[in-house]
Amino acid sequence: MPYRRTEKTERRLAEVRERIVSAAWDVVAESGFEAAAMSAVAERADLSAGGIYRHFPSRGDLLTEVFRRASGHELDVLASVAASDGTVRDRLARVVVTFARRALDGRRLAYALIAEPVDPSVDAARLDYRRRYRDLFADLVREGVTRGELPAQDPELTGAALVGAVAECLVGPLAPDHDHADDESLIANVTALALNLTGVTTDAG
């Protein structure tokens, strides 16, 4: 008769898996993906490296899970802001401000998610999430065009431009060796740039 895991065993395995992901997330948030060696994660999770491999076949699998969870959390936050009350212009501005401020408040993790060289499997997940961010912006732009709040344009193209511009503007300031400047000024300038990309001038009402 084939062995079947009990509910208690399944729960224990799930708890260990979550402990591993949490430990890896902490290491990445503190020091980036490069520092998240299996030995470092195992020490943080109070497990053996072999114990981690029972849950994740490779380091790439583990770090991809961390990337997806961290990026998914950030995307959920921005989706909530995008769905809030207000004009499209106001909501777009709030999305960009929220993205930039959260990134600057958690610089090391944000840099890891946006720009740090990573395992190919993590890079594939990064491309997937860039498309999701593009779609979030594109939906806002599409709504703005439909409601007459934004000039006619290709929402997907503008969405892609917004993702690229906002991310590129933040990469330098997020870099571990960067001398931190005035974050509020940076956020204001990035937000103005994002609005201008949609055809809105920052002095518009």
UniProtKB/TrEMBL annotation:
Organism phylogeny: Bacteria, Bacillati, Actinomycetota, Actinomycetes, Streptosporangiales
Protein's UniProt keywords contain tRNA processing: no
Domain named HTH tetR-type: residues: 14-74
One Pfam match: TetR_N
InterPro entries: Homeodomain-like_sf, HTH-type_TetR-like_transc_reg, HTH_TetR, KstR2_TetR_C, Tet_transcr_reg_TetR-rel_C_sf
DNA-binding segment(s): 37-56
Keyword DNA-binding on entry: yes
Keyword entries, A-Z: DNA-binding
Annotated protein name in UniProt: TetR/AcrR family transcriptional regulator
